[in-house]
Amino acid sequence: MKGKSSVFSAYAKSKAKTSAEARRLSIAELEKLIANLNASLAAEKAKLKKKETQDRLATIQKVNDLLAESGLKPEDLKKAPRKVGVKRKAGAKRGKTAKVPPRYRLEIDGKEYLWSGRGRTPRVFREYFDAGNSRESCEIAA
User: Fold this and answer.
1) Residue 59 included in any domain
2) SS3 of 86, please?
3) Which domain holds residue 108?
4) Which end of the chain is less packed: N or C, by CB atoms within 10 Å?
5) Sign of CA dihedral 48, 54, 55, 57
6) Which residues contact 56 (CB under 8 A, 6 or more apart)?
């Protein structure tokens, strides 16, 4: 939306005002108004898309200029290591955490179960502990 206020602003905000004003017009006038508004909407969308495309191309040009200045190639960016210790924005989701080596091992019916000791206790381990066994009995020696 542009910075200037429009006669249509009140109607865009209130369905009741729009309906009341529409009752004052004939069907032909309403159809003509709708057609004109749709044409204006299409033109504004086209302008916005063109501007977004120009902005995108300008950004690509800036990046290409920076690459040329530094002597890098686009392939080099894929190989670049990620920054460590970069602060995230508030509310940003965390990435996957690193795998933790298993701390506990159980072998039941020839099947091996591993657990790091973090998070919710797996059912197999919970049942094993509930049966009176201790965590130390299935701990993996370091």
Assistant:
1) yes
2) coil
3) 104-138
4) C
5) positive
6) none
Q: Is residue 99 part of a domain?
A: no
Report the alpha-carbon distance of residue 114 to residue 125 in Å, rounded: 9
DSSP string for 104-131: EEEEETTEEEEE-S-SSPPHHHHHHHHT
pLDDT in tens, 69-101: 988 887 877 776 766 666 666 666 666 677 889
Q: For residue 131, give the amino acid letter.
A: A
Q: What is the distance of C-alpha 7 from the center of its chain?
A: 37
- Cα–Cα distance for residue pair 68/72, rounded to 1 Å: 6
pTM over 0.85: no
Residue 93 lies in a domain: no
Residue 18 lies in a domain: yes
